[in-house]
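TASK: fixed-backbone design
INPUT:
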């Protein structure tokens, strides 16, 4: 009697253990898909924008953004481009407080290096990338 009870206890314990393991692996998978915080290295954050903004710089950056970035980030940079829905990770909303609160150096570093579906843009010149940072700043009213 006692032996059977014990066996029952052991079995249900194993069951609970399996369920816990299963739930744990589910949340690990979910965590892998959910947006993780993305931070540039401290050194990169400190770098000042060496390009002076001007109407020409903004115009050139807007052209790049409209042709190369808008499919994901949308024409107004809100992260709602036509390709966004198909991505496992949402493109950043450039007009969000989170992005705007970042330093120019941090945004430049992210554009340069990319992450996941966000491609690295090292093939654009440094001036073009700094120009894009200026352009992203123009998307919100101060
Ligand atoms: C194929 C889709 C795609 C294209 C094209 C694309 N991006 Fe992104 N971008 C993303 C995704 C997705 C993220 C979010 C990545 C993450 O959080 O892991 C992102 C994030 C960013 C961020 C980071 C914002 C932050 O502060 O966290 C910046 C800046 C950015 N993109 C700029 C650009 C620029 C500039 C271009 C064009 C030159 C561009 N992206 C083109 C998909 C794209």
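OUTPUT:
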């Amino acid at each position: 009697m006692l032996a059977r009870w014990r066996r029952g206890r052991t079995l249900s314990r194993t069951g609970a253990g399996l369920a816990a393991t299963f739930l744990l692996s589910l949340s690990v998978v979910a965590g892998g898909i959910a947006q993780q915080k993305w931070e540039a290295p401290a050194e990169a954050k400190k770098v000042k924008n060496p390009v002076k903004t001007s109407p020409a710089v903004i115009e050139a950056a807007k052209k790049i953004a409209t042709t190369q970035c808008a499919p994901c980030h949308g024409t107004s940079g809100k992260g709602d481009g036509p390709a966004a829905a198909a991505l496992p990770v949402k493109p950043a909303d450039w007009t969000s407080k989170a992005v705007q609160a970042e330093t120019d150096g941090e945004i430049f570093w992210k554009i340069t290096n990319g992450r996941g579906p966000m491609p690295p843009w090292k093939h654009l010149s440094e001036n073009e990338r700094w120009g894009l940072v200026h352009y992203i700043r123009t998307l919100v009213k101060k």
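COMMENT: The chain has two domains: 1-34, 42-138.
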